[in-house]
Write the structure tokens for this entry.
Amino acid sequence: MSGMRAREPGEVFGPRMTLFADMLSVGLATALVCLPVVTAPAALSTACAVLRGAGEGQPATAGRYFAALRRRLRAGDLGAGAVALAGALLFLADLALAGAGLPGAPLFAVVAAGIGAVALVVGLRACARPESLTDWPAAVREAARDAVRDVGGSALVLLAVATAALCAWMLVPLAFLVPGPLALALTAVHVRLTAGR
């Protein structure tokens, strides 16, 4: 994204504002595609791929997003969504059991929250990897390695999720725009890691 052109004379908005607007339109498209829930990993992965392409001079538009999603939506993407949904439901059930007052519940809640945070970071980092477009298991393996090698990036992913959740909690209509900035943050963390190698 460093190779963006400068603002032309008389142009009201520069290229960074254009990228911001494109990111919001991709985020809105991603939110719509995420509504069936099992499509969420594929939707977020496609958003990251489209935003990654913006750094290579390709347009980051909702039209390009839907075209990329149509080309890649397959059974493996829906399987990844089903696994993510099952993991989220298991995590919520574990927290409900911990809240029921079982013996050792506070320690269990802390351990469950830690495992959930690690799973969330690995899952989100997998969505940002290029391998997620064709091979989810490889993307998850590489994301797990990235999470261990780049602890700072993993902390940034958690911070991005916390910021997205806070924005959606403060103003519910923002929930439909949150996937764009989240995808941009995931893409930036991945680009930061690959640039540092």
